[in-house]
Amino acid sequence: MVLVLIVLFIYNGNGDSMNFKYVSKEIDDTLTIAENVESEKFENMVICLDGELGSGKTVFVKGFAKALGIEDNITSPTFNIIKEYQNGELPLYHMDVYRLDDVKEDIGITDYFNKGGVTIIEWSELIKDELPDERLEINFKIVDENTRLLIFKPFGKVYEELCESVL
């Protein structure tokens, strides 16, 4: 089997922000890119995942968690909002804020950004105002049944360096 990866990076119109594009031809490609991102992990890392239902967000989290050494079955925390995994190299805080409108009280999402672990947020565009200034956003676009376009947008130097290193 030949694995073909296509990676592009694009500067925006004013040249100060980069977007990196990655084409995933199958689930294993998404798992692999997640493992590669995990290899550059650091404390208080924040990764924001956005895209349609079924576009690969939770698959990405599974690959990241596996590379982190977490053996638990990773599922989307849609009804829990936040799942914590403490049994990896760093704690993993997996959030799905899709149903956050149903939660009336402040559940302390921003507290997780400085707890020394990695925070991965599915549907992060729904809490844009709560996100830290420095983060990595990944937008998942469905191309066809198996193919996904992942658009990486780093916010901050450390995330730019991560994208340059991994992609």
Structural notes for this entry:
This protein is an alpha/beta fold and 167 residues long. It has a single domain, classed as P-loop containing nucleotide triphosphate hydrolases (Rossmann fold, 3-Layer(aba) Sandwich). Helix content is 20%, strand content 30%. The protein has three helices and eight strands. The chain has helices at residues 27-38, 57-68, 157-166, and strands at 6-11, 18-24, 45-51, 82-85, 92-96, 118-122, 135-142, 148-155. Strands 1-2-8-7-3-6-5-4 form an eight-stranded mixed beta sheet. Strand 4 and strand 5 form a beta hairpin. Helix 1 (27-38) crosses helix 2. It is globular, with a radius of gyration of 15 Å. The model is unreliable at 1-16 (pLDDT under 50).
Structure, briefly:
With 167 residues, the protein is an alpha/beta fold.
What is the helix/strand order? Answer: EEHEHEEEEEH
Low-confidence stretches: 1-16
Spatial extent as radius of gyration? 15 Å
Q: What's the helical proportion of residues?
A: 10-25%
Strand count: 8
Question: Can you give the mean pLDDT?
Answer: 88
Distance between the termini: 21 Å
Which architecture does the CATH hierarchy give at level 2? 3-Layer(aba) Sandwich
Supply the helix-strand structural class. Answer: alpha/beta
CATH topology: Rossmann fold
Instruction: Give the overall shape.
Output: globular
List strands and helices in order, with pairings.
Elements: E1 6-11, E2 18-24, H1 27-38, E3 45-51, H2 57-68, E4 82-85, E5 92-96, E6 118-122, E7 135-142, E8 148-155, H3 157-166
Parallel strand pairs: 3-6, 3-7, 5-6
Antiparallel strand pairs: 1-2, 2-8, 4-5, 7-8
Helix pairs in contact: 1-2
